[in-house]
Design brief:
This protein is mainly alpha-helical. It contains 4 helices and no strands. The N and C termini lie far apart (38 Å).
């Protein structure tokens, strides 16, 4: 990645961070800053979490998805 591209990416991340509304994302970013490990997060999660992610990816590939609007309506009482 060249310097110009890197700078653009940083600015995009800054814009994204300033738009965050939930404290969970902020807390995760703070944890990342405090502990900047170079290991892949995939190696840090459980087999159950990996299986769930793989199932979700398979659902996406098979077209078993709902639009965001429908999901939001379904879960709005918890949001």
């Amino acid at each position: 990645m060249n310097k110009s591209t890197l700078e653009k990416e940083k600015l995009e991340i800054i814009k994204w961070v300033t738009s965050l509304k939930d404290s969970t994302s902020i807390e995760r970013l703070k944890m990342l800053r405090a502990n900047p490990k170079k290991s892949d997060w995939w190696n840090e999660i459980t087999e159950e979490e990996k299986t769930a992610i793989d199932k979700g990816l398979a659902d996406i590939k098979a077209g078993r998805v709902k639009p965001h609007k429908e999901a939001k309506k379904l879960y709005e009482k918890w949001l």
